[in-house]
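ligand=pyridoxal-5'-phosphate
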Amino acid sequence: MHIKDLDTPVPVIDLDRVERNIDKLQSYLDKHGIKSRPHIKTHKLPILAYKQLEAGAVGITCQKLSEATVMAAVGIKDILITYNLIGKKKVEPLAQLARQVTLSIAIDNELALKTIAEAAKLAEKTIKLLIEFESGNLRVGVQTPEEALELAQQIKQQPFLSFEGLMTYPCGAEAGRFIAEAKKLFDKAGMPINTVSAGGTPNMYRVHEVAGVTELRAGTYIYNDRNIVGSGAASFDDCALHVHATVISRPTVDRAVIDAGSKTLSSDQINPSYGQGHGYILDYPEAVIRKLNEEHGIIDLAACKDKPKLGEVLRIIPNHVCVVTNLHDEVVVHRNGVIEGTWPVWARGKTR
Ligand SMILES: Cc1ncc(COP(=O)(O)O)c(C=O)c1O
């Protein structure tokens, strides 16, 4: 079967592009002696996690404990969770995970430390901890190297925890300054920093410029999307996931409506300096997907010379591909348009 014959709306993945994206980043990281620990948040598919490991990744990154549980169940053995895990309900599943895999977790506070210490004790397994620091994202992370050292010293006092290093997201000059200061402070305190883990895709080919980084966690690079193209880190030809959608109405000359709304494309915005609307329509680059209802995508065709016809199938590059993956039970995979399979997105919808 050919992808032209698919029912819509549907996310369609080009496996040749996926493999090319994996190999390109892995070669760059190998060249610079930086480890790859891809974030599976983009694809949420065990089979693609295995492709990344086969290409040379040292392990994977998950954002949530429940995502990590899915990946452990298929035999993946080295997992980093980059999320503060807090609360009694986390202890038992975390202990179970620690029995199955080599587990690292990033934290920025003592409550997460306490939860993980309890789980490690219950499992009688060592869990490695990284301390997350903030480097421009204004999200989570300790604010100073002194805070990081204080937390690292608390880790050392716990029997089944080991201090592994530092972690940040994303990774730029600010991260470099923090790492340099932290190194001096930790050296003085006799606490070696084994790992400095940084993310993500927009800066991936510049990570070697940030002294001290030992590992990169890129997620989006496997598919890429409109925001990544806008950032300059990839081109539209590197985008491996297209959403196929059918024009279901042409109410006016300048309006088309497709069967893909926010349930399919997500409501994630494009950075305004990169473009407008809710996705890039490959065959009609001047068209703007102005508005999304749950099941309707409303397209403004005023700037298009050629306009899509009723019933035509459009190929759309989403603004943010990770959230699109999370919306779909299955993805269709192909090479040169010939369908190779339909894969269930096993780690989708895992919020805990
Ligand atoms: C903690 C963390 N690491 C890595 C990544 C991967 O970033 P990207 O998708 O830009 O590669 C993300 C993305 O949200 C993240 O939150």
